[in-house]
């Protein structure tokens, strides 16, 4: 059952642009009548640099006459609008002051960085979202990893708006050594099990945090303040704000504000190959030192899942993991069909050149498969590896299952790291993408 939904906060700059422009024009008209002191503050405040500006309300202490809950309301409103005021803790610190200045400049208000009842009233009655250019500046640029190899075949999906898609039994192997398997699907809920013993269920939209999980530290759950059905596809430049309530193993609760923003399309190389991807970055507030502050997904429409994920922590630490392989579930496949596909993959890796395809089919499976080598790699110790993709063609939908395999010199068998016994370890294959 879907968790209870609260109010969604979706803001788009164009929807409010006319009002902001009119306010700017109104101020400009005043300046033309003699209030020339306006011009000094606007750009500095917009960019979050410089001093107080020249047009200001009478100087007051930050938060003067404001209850703590009112200050929290200002901080939450600014966060929802994309101005990054820091945690909603009721303390008007430097981050909150800078966010207020940015908001005042964009909204055409006197710029002083002060919290006041008038500011709170404006945020409630006539809020102005941060423009995309400003929001982009508040999120770190995506880290794309190594450069795309010039000889690689780029695995590209024709339909850029394809939703994430999974089947029971699908296996995803990652360069950090983790293997995740789809164990059950219920509507838009995907139930996963990890090789580390953890299990969790999450929405088909992988950007959303898991609804519930059970890890070594204990069970937990989350509730989000947005209808996830409205979050896909992410549109370029359209920021999404929502709040996540997390209940931990001991029943403790924590609440964080999330901001997610598409950051364009990029070609990225990971161990499993080179992909055309859609980049989505989320930032969240009030995180502990050992929790990620920003997370970037590189979603590949061709495989209907992300192929790279980069986490950035408050101390500047960066952790990245890339896709090693996707293995089709084949829950209802006869054993002979699975063995037949494995043989076809071995033959294609031995005989096919990069970009050429071998075709395989079975009378027991209502689909036709193509196996295509997409690139070559060499490990530091000289082992030869090849990236490839298995493409399942059926009446319903085509699916792509990319992977990398390295050849055992003694047996000549191609082995997929992380998944196959005797394959090169994850620490080696990580350097291949």
Please describe what this structure looks like.
The chain has helices at residues 13-32, 42-47, 68-81, 94-107, 117-125, 132-138, 335-351, 426-429, and strands spanning 9-10, 154-155, 171-174, 179-186, 189-194, 199-203, 212-215, 218-224, 240-247, 253-270, 273-284, 292-300, 305-313, 318-327, 358-361, 368-378, 384-393, 399-407, 414-415. The protein has 433 residues and is of the alpha+beta class. It folds into three domains: 9-138, no CATH class; 154-327, YmcC-like (YmcC-like fold, Beta Barrel); 335-432. The strands form two sheets. A twelve-stranded antiparallel barrel has the order 3-4-5-6-7-8-9-10-11-12-13-14. A hairpin with a 2-residue loop joins strand 4 and strand 5. The protein is elongated.
Distance between the termini: 39 Å
CATH fold name of the largest domain: YmcC-like fold
**Element pattern in H and E:** EHHHHHHEEEEEEEEEEEEEHEEEEEH
Spatial extent as radius of gyration: 26 Å
Question: Structural class from helices and strands?
Answer: alpha+beta
Strand content: 25-35%
Shape: elongated
Q: Sheet with the most strands?
A: 12 strands, antiparallel, barrel
Instruction: Give the spatial strand order of the biggest sheet.
Output: 3-4-5-6-7-8-9-10-11-12-13-14
Counted by DSSP, the helix tally is: 8
Q: What's the total count of β strands?
A: 19
Mean pLDDT: 79
The CATH class of the largest domain, by name, is Mainly Beta
CATH architecture classification of the largest domain: Beta Barrel
Q: Please tell me the total number of domains.
A: 3
What low-confidence regions span 5 or more consecutive residues with pLDDT below 50? 1-63
